[in-house]
Write a structure and sequence with these properties.
By secondary structure, the protein is of the alpha/beta class. It has nine helices and seven strands, in the order βαβαβαβαβααβαααβ. Helix 1 packs across helix 9 and helix 4 packs parallel to helix 6.
Length: 264
């Protein structure tokens, strides 16, 4: 029996990048999927996975709107009967120099999607998990904010660090209901989001920026989205039943170096 066989998993931000990688891995392990994203591409991914034999639906929904997350949870329950897993993956990253920002638009976008989006998604699925007295919640944080940060990442780093605190608070609050809550902290993953950051950083040669990132990682590469999916699957199955309230770094060792030159 596959480790997520017949488990109903809601995955936000599931149309591309890490979300698509998570969805494909969960499908491999037998989960029934409710994929959510703002854009129409979520339906294309759902259709591809359905052709491969996965029980799956795609739902267009905005995580920043609580009522849409409540509707998403209802659709999941109406379609598959329950919710066993939530992977709160939806997020954005827009680089902006703190002192050059003319208003709070970028800050508020990060807070609305990265922080409030996770808050809303968790709030929506918890009633069903509490009713069943079991559940798995995986929050997508980052090494950025909790461990490291670069110039231009004030809004993103703040939002992702907040998710670590949220994970710990929620894990403590729902432990009595046998619900596990953990955070994943990826380093750089080859996704459209990172490619967009590379274009912002070096519009003339974004691949140079990508290669520079890879060169600074001890494992000499960026992660594949499916590698994040494998960790999410582990945190969503019974093999991780005694893990809760923690953040797991998956970054190819990028946060290990103490300096950039010592010993070279």
């Amino acid at each position: 029996m596959r480790k997520l066989e017949n488990k109903v998993a809601v995955i936000t931000g599931a149309s591309k990048g890490i979300g698509e990688g998570i969805a494909s891995v969960f499908a491999k392990y037998g989960a029934k999927l409710v994929l959510a994203a703002r854009g129409e591409k979520v339906h294309e991914l759902a259709a591809r996975l359905k052709e491969q034999g996965t029980e799956v639906i795609g739902v267009q929904a905005d995580v920043s709107k609580r009522e849409e997350m409540e509707k998403l949870a209802k659709i999941a329950i109406d379609t598959f009967g329950t919710i066993d897993i939530l992977v709160s993956n939806a997020g954005i990253c827009i680089l902006e120099d703190f002192m050059d920002a003319e208003d709070e638009t970028v800050r508020d976008l990060h807070f609305d999607i990265n922080i409030k989006g996770t808050w809303n998604a968790v709030k929506a699925v918890l009633p069903e998990m509490i009713r069943k007295e079991t559940g798995k919640i995986v929050v997508m944080s980052s090494v950025t904010g909790d461990l490291v940060a670069d110039p231009g990442e004030a809004a993103y780093a703040t939002s992702k660090a907040a998710l670590v605190g949220f994970t710990k608070a929620m894990a403590r609050e729902v432990a009595m209901h046998h619900i596990n809550v953990n955070a994943i902290c990826p380093g750089y993953v080859r996704t459209p989001l990172v490619e967009g950051m590379a274009r912002q950083s070096d519009p003339d040669d974004p691949e140079r920026a990508i290669q520079a990132i890879a060169d600074a990682v001890p494992l000499s590469r960026l992660a594949a989205p499916e590698e994040i999916g494998e960790l999410a699957a582990f945190l969503s199955c019974e093999e991780s039943s005694y893990i809760t309230g923690t953040q797991i770094v998956i970054d190819g060792g990028s946060t290990l170096p103490e300096t950039s030159s010592m010993g070279q």
